[in-house]
Every structure is written in structure tokens, then in C-alpha cells.
Amino acid sequence: MSKESTKSSLKNSLKIEESYDISNKRKHKVGRPVDNVWNLFTDSKNAFNIKNGKSAECKNCHQIVIHHNKVLSVKSHLNKCQSFRKKMIHLEKNQLPDWFDEIKQKRKPKEIEQKKQKQIHDYTIKDLTVIQQKKINEEIAMYFYATGTPFQNVEQNHLLNAFKICRPNVALPSKKMLSGKLLDTCYEKVVKSVNETLSNLSFISLTSDGWSNVENQPFINYMAISVTKKKCYFLDSVFTKDQTCKDEWIVNDISR
Q1: Are 201 and 232 in contact (CB under 8 A)?
Q2: pLDDT along the chain (256 residues), means of 10
């Protein structure tokens, strides 16, 4: 065999080897692995390939889903797919995919809370109930009694206007109510509250104080003082008439 023929045969064999290596490399070309989520999503082959379109039929719910060849879109659909979720319920926690939303899995479709539609009365100021109006009257009355404010001031327009800013339908008690029914009600409640408090105290101090009213009539007040609670409670006010408030008289009056 001539040298020229040998050279040509070697060249041909090298070309064959090179072409084989190139084709072999193409066959074993390393790329991004296909996510297993596609197998859970559809039976369509190579649905992830852009050449096969941007949508595929979900094998769980049999709906055509537009996935844009993105794994996140497929996972998002499967997390919402009720047919797929029912299959996942029967699996153990360690068998669930990492991307599966376990919170939604625990919630059945019937248990999903529906947003309550607001009604027109939700945007309006509700009328006061009878109990609420009664409580307002008593608190206003206690303010007048505790501060010594004249009852006629309750009918002052500015006071009523201030309350109506908060509740347009509010009604304030009249001066007749302050001097009548409300006075009796508040007095009974205060007396009951003071008696209950004093009955639960271990030690109290009793004090007295003489005074005269605007008509120069003599009175004596009795007060109970709690050292532990640091409060004093009014007990009684006695008209002494012509009696002088000496120690002996006070002792006898206390013993009654």
C-alpha cells in the first residue's frame, strides 16, 4: 500500500472518530434536570418543552392549564387543584412534596371562610339601647351629685350638643329626674357599694366633723376611713339641733 493511500485512510478514520465523539457528546449533553412536578401535573410528554406550547391538560382535574413552561405555574395550580389535594391528604407528611401547601391541605373546601358582605347598617350609628341610655343617665347624675353642680345646668344646650356629637339620638336626664328617681337609684347603689366594701375591711377608723349649713344650722358628719385602701367613706350627717357637739354627746350618738 502506498504512503498516500495510507494517509487518506487515516484521515478518514479520524474524521469518523471525531464525528462519533461529537454525536456522542450531543447525546450525553448535561442540562437542567426535568422537575418531577411535571409528572404529577400531566401525562403529556415533554409538556415542559416550549415547542409543545404553553398549556397542557392537568391529569388530576382535566382542565387545560396555561403554565408558560414554568415550574412555579404548575406548582401554583397543583396547590389549588382540589383533585390533586385529595390525593395528597392520604400521604404521610414526609411523603408530601416540599412545595405543597400543607395549610390548605388541612382545610376542606366547605371550611373555607367566605367574606361576609357588609350591610348598610354597618355604616350607620346604632341607636342606644334602653340599658345604655339608663347607664348614661346614672353616670350623668353621679357627676352632678359628686361635684355639687346645680341640676338646672343639665338643660344647658352646649352640654347636650357635646353628647350628640358622639350619639345623635342621645337624651340627657331632666333636672326633675336628677332630683327624683335618679337620686333615689344612685343613693341606693352607693349605700350598697359602701356597705359591701366596709364589711370586707378588717380595720376602719371612724371620724366626726361638725359644720353649719347656709342657714347656720349645726350638723355633724361621720366618716369611715380605710388605712389599707387609703379611702374615706361618708356614713351619715346628723342635725344636732340645740345640742353641743361634746365628746359625751358624740359617743352616745355613735352608739345608736
Answers
A1: no
A2: 49 47 49 77 80 84 86 86 84 80 51 62 79 94 94 93 88 94 94 87 83 84 82 84 70 73
